[in-house]
Design a protein that fits this description.
Length: 173
């Protein structure tokens, strides 16, 4: 299976499973498409919502290495400030893109973080430097990948404004 598709689908599986456990509801994927990437349904409430999935990369070489299309050089020195800068650019890009989505869907933005050096604590410490632009996304969530265990293990919500998840404030560890 294509690495990008695997990352996207495994991130969605983790997110759906986490939401089901946290809320005692029954979220499931209805469709995998584009604009947004997934349509998810909560079966008990018969409510659909859209999820846009993307990944945060340090740079284009990082993305190529992750997908097995580049040579691992390990020659760069990464820093969290650069990740936050790239995250802010990504949030702005996705905010503009969201304007073209179905206006009847609540939207969620999931951003996969696959860094081997920086985790949730680093991003939490950088919250004052993260800019959340106006968008149609009612929830924006960072999802952290554990490179050692090869799975998604943690959620960090940058924005929580959806009627889908109002009853609890939540963070998973």
């Amino acid at each position: 299976m294509d690495e990008k598709l695997w990352l996207e689908e495994s991130l969605m599986d983790y997110f759906i499973d986490s939401m089901n456990k946290m809320h005692g509801l029954c979220y499931s994927i209805v469709a995998h498409k584009d604009k947004p990437d997934f349509i998810v349904e909560e079966k008990r409430q018969n409510k659909n919502f859209g999820i846009e999935v993307t990944n945060l990369y340090y740079d284009s070489e990082d993305a190529k290495e992750l997908y097995g299309r580049g040579i691992i050089t390990n020659s760069k020195v990464e820093n969290i400030d650069h990740y936050v800068f790239i995250l802010n650019q990504l949030l702005d890009k996705k905010a503009h893109k969201s304007k073209g989505y179905d206006p009847n869907l609540d939207l969620i933005l999931l951003i996969g973080i696959t860094s081997m050096l920086f985790d949730r604590n680093d991003f939490e410490n950088s919250i004052p430097d993260i800019f959340i632009p106006e968008s149609k996304f009612s929830i924006i969530c960072l999802v952290f990948f554990n490179n050692f265990n090869k799975n998604w293990e943690d959620l960090m919500f940058l924005k929580q404004g959806s009627p889908l998840f109002e009853e609890k404030a939540f963070y998973l560890k």
